[in-house]
Amino acid sequence: MAKYKLPKIEEMFEAGVHIGHQARRWHPKMEKYIFTVEKKIHIINLEQTEKLLENACEFLYKTASEGGQIIFVGTKRQASATVKAEAERCGALFVTERWLGGTITNFRVIKKSIDKLLTNLKKRESGEFQVYTKKERLMIDREIDNLQRFIGGIASLRGRPDAMFVVDPRKEKTAVREAKRFKIPVIALIDTNSDPTDVDYPLPGNDDAIRSISVMVGAVSNAIEEGYKAFAKNKDKVEAVKEEEAKVVKEVESDAPSLKINTDETVVKDAEAILKAEDTLPLGTEVVINTAVGESEPVVEESKEKEKKSTATKSKK
């Protein structure tokens, strides 16, 4: 059984994925993906599209199953609604209005705007803006709406994404250029008028028709959704194993004998007396400790070796 659902060639044909641009507007590097020319319009080879889509979805599934962040980019009027809906369904990030320059290359500045959006949303929910006048609240609401429009879909972005899916890389050239600069894999629905060498996983197909876009984006979204589900299952397993290990450690610690420190006053006094005796005694004497309760003074005995030496010196004299 397949991990995720992929469209068949018949479904792609019905959706018009095979219809390319006019022959006079083609890009020469797309020649290997073109099947024929019909009424001065290029017809895309759907057999190649099917294979490339399978490879791209396998890569996206693997990336999602490892917890990687994936961005959908589609700012065309025909694609924005579909891209947003499918990205939200599968749990991916998305940009559907305009790709802000520096979203990847200058993420520090974008992160400030994201933090501002999140803090304003929290304050509005908690009612902190009620102290302001009606006009001031209206201006704050407009600012929040403007931020949500451009960066609301990437509010949870942690830094550089692990992959990027683009509808029409020719239109989204800024996003593709930033991704290439940081070697982020790019998967793109690409028509016959674009350069396929700019992306890592080209998906030849019609990037202008709404039905074609919905079929291709839906297939990509299915793979990512299943990948995130697999990641969640693995995460739960890892957490369960960690909990079991923690329980075992607690049981071992509870069974092990614990060390108790004797805080009896007599023992403390004995220790202090021993330290004083060691300071006053000459070198070579041994200190014998009597730890019986009630005896606070230590017993000091001369070493046998000292006694032998003293007797030997007396006999010589």
Automatic annotation (TrEMBL):
Ranges annotated as biased composition (Basic and acidic residues): 301-310
Query: What lineage, starting at the top, does this entry show?
Result: Bacteria, Katanobacteria
What would be the name of the gene that encodes this protein?
rpsB
Source organism per entry reads candidate division WWE3 bacterium RIFOXYC1_FULL_39_7
The UniProt entry's sequence similarity note says: Belongs to the universal ribosomal protein uS2 family.
Instruction: Write one Gene Ontology MF term.
Output: structural constituent of ribosome
Q: Which InterPro entries does the protein's record reference?
A: Ribosomal_uS2 (IPR001865), Ribosomal_uS2_bac/mit/plastid (IPR005706), Ribosomal_uS2_CS (IPR018130), Ribosomal_uS2_flav_dom_sf (IPR023591)
Q: What is this protein called?
A: Small ribosomal subunit protein uS2
Give the GO biological process terms: translation
For this protein, the record's SUPFAM superfamilies field holds:
Ribosomal protein S2
User: Per UniProt, which keywords does this protein have?
Assistant: Ribonucleoprotein, Ribosomal protein
One Gene Ontology term, aspect cellular component:
cytosolic small ribosomal subunit
The superkingdom listed in its UniProt entry is Bacteria
Q: Which PANTHER family match?
A: 30S RIBOSOMAL PROTEIN S2 PROKARYOTIC AND ORGANELLAR, SMALL RIBOSOMAL SUBUNIT PROTEIN US2M
